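user: Here is a favour to ask of a fellow structure person. I have my own habits and do not want them to colour yours. Could you put it straight underneath, so I can go through it closely?

assistant:
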Amino acid sequence: MASRFIVVGDSFCVVAGAQDSFRNWCQQAAELLGMPLVVAAGPGVSQDWQWDQLIKLWPTITPEDRVLVVLTHCERQWFVRDKPGYTHVNIGNLPTELGESVAKAIQQYCLHLQRPELDLAHQAHRLGWLSAQVQRTGAHPVWVLPAFSLHWLVHGIATSTAEYYDNFLVRGLPNLWLTEQNLYDHVQELEMMPGESTNSVFQGVDTRYNHLLKHNHQILAERVTQAIQLDQPVQLQDPRWRKGVLSPLIWQDHRFIQTEMDLYAVQRREQILKQHQGSLLDKTWLGSWLKNK
């Protein structure tokens, strides 16, 4: 079997459909590495789902394969077996997608039962399992690139990845190339103009491929490729990132939209906002729940 570039991730990694010619950063990195690509990813998925994919993939993994885990947020939970993308109150309109009773149960879990310290401990256990599998099978060390910073929306608390690696004794795990930066803070949100955010610009429907401008897909592909070629953690520092360009004014710049956005998602956003008569963000179940909790 030829060596493969295997990516296990979340919405930062999902490959565009067959009808779309755009090649995202995973595909570009695989081309730079000269390896066939395997992607196991889905929007909104939890670490439970990601490790389920790793368990299924691991018997096929050889020492020649290169594996990257884009580690999603540990607060997400795989609540409903056949709907792995609905993992938190901030993902989708849960009453519509899952029914009122399930949505209420998830709401109550996030508010009353979820404990961030346990989420962090469970993440450490998963990384320990991954380290052990590499050791057991003789696989190549695995790259771990966090998708998000460690913050809990409902509880209003946060910690840094560096502190987490130290406090939960993760930094010393063998067989893992750990990155301290994350894609959300160090790429996605830096694309915004000062004072703006993904929500203020997109009103709930992000029309970028994998939450990144097309320009930045190329840079991320090169960052990942360099890390794999040099056997070192993925470093996200790079002066070439396109930063500080997104505001609500982009919707008047049709050339920018054509150049940097997923045009299928742009069309879908227009339809959804029209359906909701304005900002989808203002109409979400999460917004009304947070106001009334």
